[in-house]
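ENTRY TYPE: paired fold submission
RECORD: A
CONTENT: sequence, then structure tokens
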Amino acid sequence: MTAWGALPMLAVMLPVLGMVLALPAGARGAERITLALLPVGIALAIGTAAAVQASGAPLVHLLGHWAPPLGLAFRADGLAAAMLVTAALVVTAVALFARADFGTAAGAPEARTAFAFWPLLLALWGAINLAVVATDLFTLYVALELLTFAAMPLVCLSGTRATLEAALRYLMFALLGSVLYLLGIGFIYGAYGTLDVVLLSDLARAELPTYVAVALMTAGLLAKTALLPLHLWLPPAHAGAPPAASAILSALVVKGSFVILVRLWFGVMPGLAAPAAAQVLGALGAAAILLGSVAALRQERLKLLVAYSTVAQIGYLFLMFPLLVAAPGHEAYAAKAWTGGVLQAVSHAFAKAAMFLAAGLIAVRIGQDRIAGLAGAARLLPVPVLAFGLAGLSLMGVPPSGGFAAKWLLLTSAIEAGQWWWALVILGGGLLTGGYVYRVMAGALTGDGTQPALRRPDKREKIVLALAVVSVVLGLLPLAAFGLVQVGRLDLAP
């Protein structure tokens, strides 16, 4: 424990405490509490990242000064710190954007949706933070459940039949994932008597119970991350939710289970992962990249296109598994694969939040979100269309965006590891992404858009543009700046 060790714990407790206070405060009070906590949350996340970077070691806080396995620990390594900062910034942008839809003006009656939105946003924030800093597999299960039961109501806030059906489908996949994860926990505890990831990294053996447990937990986490073919719940859920909810679901919620999967593979059983199993995960990721992109190309609605794009972009995250499993003894390309995977998660979070919010502004202003009806949108809404294009550049992997840096690191790592087939997938995925982004931009940039009544300024456009710019600027940072994400890797630390 260090003097700054309490920061990760405070980053979890802050939004959870805010949610508890917001519930009896009504819609107007919940909004005020949320807005008041945003700068504190950003400060805690940046403070955690700065402390991890400065010390070159993870921050650890033992709850009640009881060390595992008797107590619980919060551990913020480089990956956790990067995700804490990403979550704080995205939640802040979404909260400011959402004031137009879920804010309650002075003297106005409080709406049901506003009363639900703000506590759920705080619950999601707390759950994401818990998912990235907890080290106990059961505490991670609690974080997954909190994520599910905060995200599911956001999907059906509008109360329409389509969104209710999407929410129920999401719930079914999530519960299936929870059952499988919980069964895996049972096997782990029965074999080793502890659920702490750090302790398990020394205890885990290459035995059948370990492999059965990890297989069950991996399948459960894939369902929650929506990796193809377990992605069926994601497009209708993300496309049907309000724009602010879609942004937070696509940017952050699917990343929580992904981080836990990384902890499981490279924390619980370092060096024990079977290369064949890692290749299967990589193959599923490759299929998601290619088939998800083709599905995005075929969509008629803008939000569905963006949702299928999420299915495809999630696939890139899983290319790091076969590269890292083959990496022991090859620190150089292992570091590239790790940094590429984490940077893909971060840059995608900002880009996809920008895309969903831009799509929401476009749909509200022109009254529909069919791609065929976007003619003239760039004249009416130049800033949202620009933001959509910038975020699209990052998803394509065009220099110098954050998406380019992530995909370049994964591509070069694949070539150096002798796994050239992943490089072909990355190149093919970039071309397909360019196809569906071009389809939207070509439609928006054509036509005269002569509807002056629709041309009115909206402060939210600046928020959308800022998110898109961040997704691009990440690629301008020197590679040494990403040394943060290398701190505390459980599997490959020198």
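RECORD: B
CONTENT: sequence, then structure tokens
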Amino acid sequence: MHNPLLNKEFRQRMRTNRAPVVITAYLVSMAALTFLMLYENVQGQFALLLPARSEQVFLVVSLLQMTVVAFLTPAFAAGSISGERERRTLAVLLTTPLSPGEILIGKILSSSALLALLVMVTLPLYSLVFLFGGAVPQEALAVFGFQLYTILVIAALSVAWSTLALRSGWSTVLSYSTVTFMTLVTGLLGYALQFAAVRFPADGFLAQWGNELLQLNPLWVDARLENAVTGPFHSWLIFVAFYSILALALLGLSVWRLRPQVLSFMPGVSRSDERNYQ
């Protein structure tokens, strides 16, 4: 895919001193945490390491990694378009041959690239789990694939909010509110409804809505992929379908926001001047 904006963003983000420092610090922190947990589980005797204990390490490390990348992604993506607007370079960007869709795709991929790299560099750490039989390769690949998708969808939502909101402050608030809904609100409400369903078993809708909310939580779905919680095996499909539709809807509005003339053929769509958004 030839996208000059994506190439420029990659060079700007990866050729700075901050990128290798962030990657090295993250890898060292995750490695120290993994070895500390393994050492603590066996009390210094690695010969006592059992598959069940290494499975717990795999679960904790993957959930921690999911939490970190979920809350870091908006920091890279929430100001991508609104920052261009505030620097008064958005109008110049729109005069290039790039379509609004290509501009959004370039921003999404460039803002999620470093987070995806953080996930990939931790792959060797999980070899320790394989060594002691705590997980099978299929589980690890499913977890990594799901984490990469979560990064991509959060980056897409953050770029969409960055386009729809006029200022970086508002787009940052909306992006972190979205991540809070995904990770905290759905989890707390889901488990609260399941707890209420145990107290009032006659109300079947409580358990059903509790399960529906938990399937929208990336931490719960991550744990389900590792068989650490009970629930439908294909819960990840509900997660992917819901957030893909939400991201596509917001990105569609973002295309109209960047260039209102693109959707002017549709009935009911305003033919507003794009200068109103720059």
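NOTES ON RECORD B: The chain has a mean pLDDT of 84. The CA atoms of residues 218 and 274 lie 36 Å apart.
STATUS: closed
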